[in-house]
Design brief:
The complex is a heterodimer. Chain A has 13 helices and 16 strands. Chain A is an alpha/beta fold. By secondary structure, chain B is α/β, with parallel strands linked by helices. Classes of the chains: A alpha/beta, B alpha/beta.
Chain lengths: 413, 342
């Protein structure tokens, strides 16, 4: 029952991440990505998936999908019909669930974030619908596969996940919201397990959209650089397995980290522009800390939303400065969008993965393209790879429509 | 306090820009105006469009944010504000922490279609004015901006029953103490592209646009309460999992037993005929009264699910029922149900 819940914990439970899987332009899988993010490698190239010849900007962090599909319960026909976003999601899900090694089936909530869902399928449908020949064969299947919920259903079916599923479409905060809502479900005792994540495949509509807004960098994505001139798009997926920390410990699971806090708020300043002082970002960082019972002085690193647009980074810098106060100078900040671009609905989840990798490995992911940090940054922008003992980190995600979210993650101890 | 109650409602439909007009149309059962929608020269479906808003409605939703938005955002804002105003009257709370859960099946299809068409014609000339309003959460953002809501906001996408999932999410966030009042809004807008897509599955379903909203809060006041929202029950006829089975599981979870004379079922009849047949089989043992909403106002997907819930709550308010169950057979993927009582 979605409501009222069948179970509810008397006290909030601590929640562990016991599985993680991801694909980005840096590669397939946790280890390949950890190596890439640690070095601050960049994975951009000219887009091959659709025609960019008439676009102002032509590059993105496009990934190479494995030719085959992961082993799952999907039929050959279902697997063959899976769209690009679904394929990313299934690969990430496979790695995540293999790592979690859940042996007994249990009711498992699925919470996913996306901005575009099956948009590549929708685009294909539309091209045919208005085409001169007006091809109708295969169009009905495209309608089904375009549905935003389709990818979640495929993930559930592929890996036998029985339970409720939510698909959050909060623009570029979708992934962080999905992780946060899944965390709330496990923390409150409504479910004992959750699979959460985000995914978005590059598609022509969205690429052209950001290009039309002149939000894409014509040079290079340089978050927090004083000469930054825009963002770069990317694609990918990240999926996590969440369960109560106590149970994870009891079964001897590998614990990638703990989610300690989450908060969401709405910035009503403008549909696409953040409030100059980052009021909603400040609110989510403050409240995530309150929920975790931590102060800014206990946070060592912030994985910023850091898109590289002049307005976003200025607003976020103001928010981090205000949130950290006199502790700002001691906090390391970077944006991994310099490596894999802005993954939109997957951004918050891939950046959560980066935080977990950094916590586990004791390193800071650099923003190597930032050469001259904006003087508005009262904090230290990490521009070179470095080792650092980390205990608590924050991941920020902000989206169109003023969707703001912060996740507070801690090292498994 | 653990009772989640419906403190306010709002609606936009082909019957008009208010709950009163929606309910009046359902009660009278008279046919509403339909137009034909589809790609020129191809299969067309009946469509029920929202009428032009009156001057009073225009004044109510006048805001700089809404100058160039498409229908779905106007519908969502109008329904959300109507629900919020009523909730504030009912509860006396002026400035609680208000959350928003926005739900949609088809999303912002008008601007998405228009923008993509421009991209295909010439991406260098595609309008940057359109793109921001193509995102799923644009209506939720506009609504929050109009009433100044800075609390949590979630946009959920999926089959028609996503509106019920949204109600469950809102109820749980109320119990978590994350918000004091939560607007659950579902909206859709008509476009030839939807008619084209739906036409692959049904020859005669009347597609409808508009919005519905419930304002939920925690209260011990004698207001209609949300009793339950079932798990979504997935179906895949091609894979041997028929909609009838899913709807039977919904009926079982809703507790469709011990039915009394004051029990009311809000059915999904009037939408997709194949689903109506499955629903009829699943609820064959229902001994209470039944009310159909879609037969009058059409298949409004997530908005239509909200119209069913509004009709359920209205029946409870009027004393026409003491328990109202809502059956929501989704157009493509899952069935779900919600139960209300007073």
């Amino acid at each position: 029952m979605l409501f009222p819940p069948d179970n509810r914990a008397s006290e909030p439970r601590r929640v562990a991440v016991t599985g993680g899987g991801l694909l980005t332009a840096l590669g397939s899988g946790w280890d390949a990505n950890a190596a890439g993010f640690r070095e601050g490698r960049a994975g951009f190239r000219e887009v091959r998936g659709f025609d960019v010849s008439r676009q102002r900007v032509k590059v993105a962090a496009e990934l190479d999908l494995p030719d085959e599909m992961p082993e799952s319960r999907l039929s050959i026909r279902e697997a063959r019909r899976a769209d690009r976003g679904s394929r990313m999601l299934l690969w990430a899900g496979k790695e995540c669930l293999s790592g979690a090694a859940w042996e007994t089936p249990q009711r498992t909530a699925v919470v996913l974030g996306t901005t575009s869902g099956g948009m590549t399928v929708g685009e294909d449908y539309y091209r045919r619908a208005i085409g001169v020949d007006r091809v109708t064969k295969g169009q009905a299947a495209k309608v089904v596969h375009y549905q935003a919920r389709r990818q979640a259903s495929l993930l559930q079916k592929a890996f036998g996940l029985e339970g409720p599923a939510f698909v959050v479409a909060n623009a570029c905060a979708s992934g962080a919201n999905a992780v946060g809502l899944a965390w709330e479900l496990v923390r409150s005792g409504r479910v004992d397990r959750a699979v959460c994540g985000g995914y978005d495949a590059l598609c022509q509509l969205v690429f052209a959209g950001f290009d039309s807004l002149q939000a894409l960098s014509p040079t290079m994505c340089r978050p927090f650089d004083r000469e930054r001139d825009g963002l770069a798009l990317g694609e990918g997926a990240a999926v996590f397995a969440l369960e109560p920390l106590a149970e994870a410990r009891e079964r001897g699971a590998r614990i990638l980290g703990e989610i300690r806090g989450y908060a969401a708020a709405t910035d009503v300043h403008h549909l696409t522009q953040p409030h100059p002082e980052g009021v909603a970002a400040l609110e989510t960082m403050r409240r995530a800390c309150e929920v975790a019972g931590l102060t800014p002085s206990e946070i060592q690193y912030v994985n910023a939303h850091g898109t590289g647009t002049p307005l976003n980074d200025a607003s976020e810098a103001a928010a981090i400065n205000a949130w950290a106060g006199e502790d700002a100078g001691g906090i390391a900040v970077s944006s991994t969008k310099a490596s894999v671009g802005h993954l939109l609905g997957a951004a918050g989840t891939v950046e959560t993965a980066v935080c977990l990798m950094a916590l586990e490995g004791g390193w800071l992911p650099p923003t190597r393209s930032c050469r001259m940090p904006d003087p508005a940054c009262g904090f230290r922008v990490v521009t070179e790879p470095e080792s650092a003992p980390l205990e608590n980190v924050i991941s920020n995600s902000f989206g169109f429509g003023g969707a703001n979210a912060s996740l507070l993650l801690g090292r498994a101890s | 306090m653990s009772r989640v109650v419906v403190a306010g409602m709002g609606a936009v439909s082909s019957a008009g820009w208010s709950v009163a007009e929606l309910l009046s149309a359902i009660e009278s059962g008279a046919a509403l105006e339909r137009v034909r929608s589809g790609y020129p020269g191809r299969r067309e479906l009946d469509a029920l469009n929202a009428p032009k808003p009156t001057k009073e409605v225009q004044a109510r939703i006048r805001h700089p944010r809404l100058r160039r938005v498409s229908g779905i955002s106007r519908f969502a804002v109008a329904a959300g504000l109507e629900a919020l105003a009523e909730a504030r009257t009912q509860t006396g709370i002026e400035t609680p922490r208000v959350g928003v859960v926005f739900c949609s099946t088809c999303g912002c299809v008008t601007y998405s279609r228009k923008f993509f068409h421009e991209v295909l014609e010439d991406p260098e000339l595609a309008s940057p004015m359109l793109f921001p309003d193509t995102v799923f959460n644009a209506p939720a953002s506009h609504l929050a901006a109009v009433f100044g809501g800075t609390g949590e906001s979630y946009t959920l996408v999926g089959d028609s029953g996503t509106a019920a999932e949204g109600a469950a999410l809102a109820a749980n966030r109320l119990l978590d103490g994350a918000v004091d009042l939560c607007l659950v809004v579902a909206a859709e807008e008509n476009n030839w592209l939807i008619a084209d897509a739906v036409g692959h599955f049904a020859k005669s379903v009347p597609i409808a646009e508009g919005a519905g909203a419930l304002a939920l809060t925690l209260s011990e006041a004698p207001l209609p309460r949300l009793d339950k929202v079932t798990d979504p029950q997935f179906y895949d006829t091609a894979a041997g999992s028929p909609a009838t089975d899913a709807l039977e599981r919904v009926a079982a979870q809703l507790g469709a037993v011990d039915v009394g004379a004051n029990d009311l079922l809000l059915s999904g009849k009037g939408g997709f005929s194949r689903l109506a047949e499955a629903e009829q089989m699943a609820w064959a043992g229902w001994g209470g009264r039944t009310m159909d909403v879609k037969t009058v106002v059409g298949e409004g997907f997530a908005a239509g699910a909200m119209w069913q819930m509004i009709a359920a709550v209205s029946a409870l308010r009027k004393g026409a029922a003491s328990r109202a169950l809502v059956s929501l057979p989704g157009a493509y993927q899952f069935a779900i149900g919600a139960g209300f009582s007073i």
